[in-house]
Specification:
This protein has 366 residues and is mostly helical. Helix content is 60%, strand content 0%.
Length: 366
Amino acid sequence: MDMMLILLIAVLLVGIGVTVFAVMNADKDGAPVEPAKPATPAAPKPPQPVPIINPEPQRPAMAAVVEPPRQMLLSEGPTPEHSHEKISYKEAIAHGWDMTRKYWLPLLMVTIIYVIFQVLGGVLQSQVGRSHMSRFEVAAVYKDRARADRFYLYLQQAGYINKSGFVQSRLQDLTNPADLALSSDFADKRTEISNFLNSYRYRLPFPRPVFYLFSFGLWLLGIVMMAGYTKVSLLAARDEQPSVPELFNNWNRVIPLLLGGLCYGLVVLGGFILLIIPGIIFMIMFQMYMYLIIDKGLGPIASLKRSRVITKGNRGRLGVLGLLLILVNLAGFLCLVVGLFLTIWTSAIAMAYVYDRLEHDFSPQT
């Protein structure tokens, strides 16, 4: 077991290292660097003509103006003519608030559908039952540690859980509290114990494989809806009418989002392993990857590299903006449901607005 743990940690560290290297050391636009071509030998100069008397002075030839490729401008950031402005906290939050008030009805409909989806998933999970019981969880019935340990040992001896704490079939088959076999030491809390043990039973009307298949479908739908939530935020930030169907129109972004989230998590985890501060920096540096995947259709690594480019010069302000939005949502939470609805969308639209500003500043100007 120890060797397996060491192997897993080694694989994780290698994955983090490879991801960080790919993001930090590759060229900005994601294209491989072409090797330099050998220089073409210069053609022999023609013989100089014999100078004539009083020749007309020759004007120096003008050097050809070489326009930089458009792709280079796009990938390597702003040129001196296109300075990168600092983002404004007040402007971003005010824009998010204005667009939330303007499009409150479609945003409310999107929120209701999203909440219904989350509640459905939560209800299903609550009926599945937990498959493992720890000693600490028994404290829900007995606060006294010594008695809780005795009750945990009794559950093992009675065959409700095994020695590792995993739920056994005897507990799964328990449907009536009167059928619960309890010793005299624990019979006084039969109802509480029955309710506690019931949370570990699988109570859905279909077999577990059906539940696992259904859960996988809900998981994929959740990723699509998360992408749709981001797309709705972008539309509102651009003063375009958001709509409910946008929640479900991003199936082609599922795999890039999964891989991008995995790479983002590995990079941030690697930063936190390096004494926390690099993790916070990486978290801010690459936080725009999801917008770039959804809005521009970039791949996982390309979106991370692009996020590194467009956040340059504003990472400190992005961190402060994130803290301000947390405070805004905390205030919305204190104002209960209506306040939280307004602040969540204000924050989401404000971040989408900041993304648009950053991406626009680093795009070629025409």
